[in-house]
Amino acid sequence: MKNFHLPLPEQTYKELRAEAERAQVPATTLAREAIDIWLRQQWKKTRHDAIASYARQMAGTEFDLDPALEAAGVEHLLKSGKARK
Length: 85
What we know:
By secondary structure, the chain is mainly α. The chain has one domain (about 10-80). Helix content is about 70%, strand content about 0%. It has helices at about 10-25, 25-60, 65-80. α1 crosses α2. The longest helix has about 30 residues, at about 25-60. It is elongated and about 55 Å long. The two termini are about 40 Å apart.
């Protein structure tokens, strides 16, 4: 474990302390968890963006998704009610 000094705006500091007191956990634990969650979200976004970029680059090439397979997948999602926007 490494220590990291992080100056916070007064309001953020007060809110962090209040939440820590309410949850009965150290403020450093809450801050660590919040940073961990944010870093995981950033990693997922980076992965998503890389996959989306690859898909755009491969669109229309021999590496693009097979149209019949894509249609079957869309049909399945629509029938199962799991289609997303």
